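Morning run. Coffee first, then this:
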Amino acid sequence: MSRFPKNFLWGGATAANQCEGAYNVDGRGLANVDVVPVGEERLAIITGQRKMVDFEEGYFYPAKDSIDMYHHYKEDIALFAEMGFKTYRLSIAWTRIFPKGDEVEPNEKGLEFYEKLFKECHKYGIEPLVTITHFDCPMHLIEEYGGWRNRKMLVFYERLCRTLFARYKGLVRYWLTVNEINMILHAPFMGAGLYFEEGENQEQVKYQAAHHELVASAIATKIAHEIDPENKVGCMLAAGQYYPNTSHPRDYWAALQEDRENYFFIDVQARGTYPNYAKKKWERLGIDVKMTDEDLDLLRAYTVDFISFSYYSSRVASGDPEVQEKTEGNIFASLKNPYLESSEWGWQIDPLGLRITLNVIWDRYQKPMFIVENGLGAIDKPDETGHVADDYRIDYLRKHIAAMKDAILEDGVELLGYTTWGCIDLVSAGTGEMKKRYGFIYVDRDNEGRGSLKRFKKKSFDWYKQVIASNGEDLD
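And here it is:
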């Protein structure tokens, strides 16, 4: 018996702002992710503590050009097809479709670009999996309306969705509404176009913006099903189960609270109502989230069809204020787990944690799942021919795919597919670096934007091709 379903969707994932480049081509407008530079101030900007609304002298902005997939997409998709991809996860750059975000009519050049890209995927039998907003908000909407803190964003997002669902009917069937929606709590400018004024109640702003994003997700699900009943709409979570640091009950309680903070969003998107623990938290913190009866009706009626998530590592929580040793992670840090090895960026490696996370999500929601990000960021060193012997990446992915196998066959979870993150090298969302590489395909570009942009296959390219051809059975 094969451990993976016959129609399992193997593939890879990228995001527009991390790979497309061409930031000012064919009418595209300026987005929040464009104006986030590499360097010491990057974290302050993506967390909304340092206001940057345009390009400033003395900074390098990697998203401007990235790996220029805008002009290389045919070459890149051909390489994905050579690996045997069944699906390719990508995102829409909102400002290619509506350059300012509040226009009534879309930008035809932007619509044409994605139509050609989707058709190129279908030419090779690759199913597009499209994230509507992946850390992407038009700067005009941020400056004019305050980003997702403003309820008017519902109108602009709905217009975007109607345009996409109508134009790409028959070309796209799998949609994700908001990438890593829980990142709004950890990187609010990147996640929702939020920056804060001095003295402002930041938790109030973040949860109000989160409510607007959740309602927008329900609206998107409603419209997607109305326009094409074949559409499947998913939510997207930055996942990774929290372990208690010790068997002390206060550590277990701390882990439970951390998990709830992340699952709060998916509780709403998958179950349709705000959980009591969230309401009580808001009550304790004096947070008053403005919502209407219509909002609550939408959330209840239009839950997602499946749950997608990124997984890079598990996390650790402690109720002891003296326990402070942190490790790096996907934007937000965790306590260090002494039983795990770490990547060059300090992200801890835990394949069994993926199986645990799959089981927790399945037990909690009983909805199909899709792993849409997983991978190892590492410094790759090509030889004189451009080849990279990335056995460390193969080892990481092999162990995580084996954990997926166990979750499906031994535990009975329902998994639709698996897309590795950064299947082609791209700009890191967290650090803005190019040297932090995830791909099966090496792109000749460095942290300062230098390089030929030539593509080279790494050793992992042929390995993943073999994994897909065997439907996950041959991992050697």
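Residues 9-469 form a domain with the TIM Barrel fold (CATH 3.20.20.80). Good start to the day.
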